[in-house]
Amino acid sequence: MPFESEKQRKAMYAAASGKSNIGIPQKVAKEFIKHSTDNDENNLEWLNELLLKEMEANMLKGDGEVSAPVLLTPKEFETDSNIVVRKGELSHELQKLQIKDIGEKLYQVAQHIKELKQDADSEVVPRFGVEDKNDADPCWEGYTQYGMKEKNGKKVPNCVPDAENETIEQNSDLVPQPPAQVKPEDNMGGAQGRAAGIMFITPDEEVLLIRRGMGGGDYPGTWCIPGGHQKGDETLEETARRETLEETGIDYKGELEVLFDDGQFCYFVAHNYVKQNVKLNYESTGYDWCSPTVPPMPLHPGLEKAFKIAMAKTETDVAKLISEGLLASPQMYANIALLAIRITGTGLAFRSSIGEHVWRDPSLYLNDEFLQRCNGLMVIMDHPETQVLTTKEFKDRAVGSVLMPYIKGDEVWGIAKIYDQDAINEILEGEVSTSPAVVFDQTAGNITLTTENGEPLLIEGVPFLLDHIAIVTKARGSKGVWDKGGDAAGVLLTNNEVSEND
Predict the structure, then answer these.
(1) Rounded to two decimals, what is the model's pTM?
(2) pLDDT grade, residue 35 (50/70/90)?
């Protein structure tokens, strides 16, 4: 599209240099110059597209009203110091474009985009309890947003019903309000003030949470599973069922299993639960079926930990929870016991059997390379007479292997899979520790010194073989070198319930 006149050419070049005050956008001028050699004067799609982009850019960066960009190319100009002043009527090309009509249409498009942007900044939530074909819809009256939740792979605001509102969904009728006089209840009732509840998990891995009200005990306003304190001679399971019925109207008769017990609150779990009507009592102000990965907030203390345990699906998931201290050790899983054991310590220790001090450099052991060497390390009961395992000793002593090594302070630990039931029973009796079998050769770089007392001091290098890790039993004195003269501490035994479950 050639320039119509020399004045038009000057106007465009002035705008392209950023020195025009007649309203021609700099980008438009540059594109106009770029296409000035085109012969097809009717091919103006590039200009229309550029105008739209310019309109959107001005709208997005501005907070005020959106206006159409001015693209007027006059026939007559006055110039002063390279400043071009608009004067005259529209050019022939812009008349052909009918710029006024295009500008109005672009203005409408920009306004529409601005409205969409404002809508995106507002809260858009799915309707509670209703399938929404549009994936998201504003909260209905009587619903309040509490945190975010996941729907169809997207994080959206979490809308839950307000129990005190009369417009609550029909499937969540309220249990009658409390009597005029409510007698104070002893929250320390039952065995040592214990409490229990039920975590319902649906086939879609959603859980039922309720929001505690001012009359709902400790931490009002937080989200939790239905549950409460023991009464009288109730068992924890009886407590969980009764409290769930009182708080949700769900009279659950199905099977329950213990998910997690922190010594104060016992979490029972009901798997593959099919949703039923929820009827909140006066203790709660809302409920929600949510994904444990995107729950409403804030959560009642302990619930986040319970969620992690509930979502554990494999032996490695459980092992990780033990290594993080979220689950006690050991844990029975299918046909094995998952047990936290020390693989080796570092620093200075004393081998009493040969009267030798030893220094094990932490930098050689507390690293990823050594952890990789520990993967699959054989676990045996007591060291054999030979330095390494033979075929016979392997058959006689092997009870499991290390599944997940990890660093704990200045020591290397691992979660072991123990298969042998007799070994498990002996370990559970306590007074056991561990001792690693590391083998050095002439290339290891070991150095032997003598202390001021005349005792040998071995400065260890890098072992060429990590042969096994032995459980040191009572028959062998219960202690390993890396107990460093203290109590036997190479096996973590913090789960008192395991023996009852065998």
Answers:
(1) 0.61
(2) confident
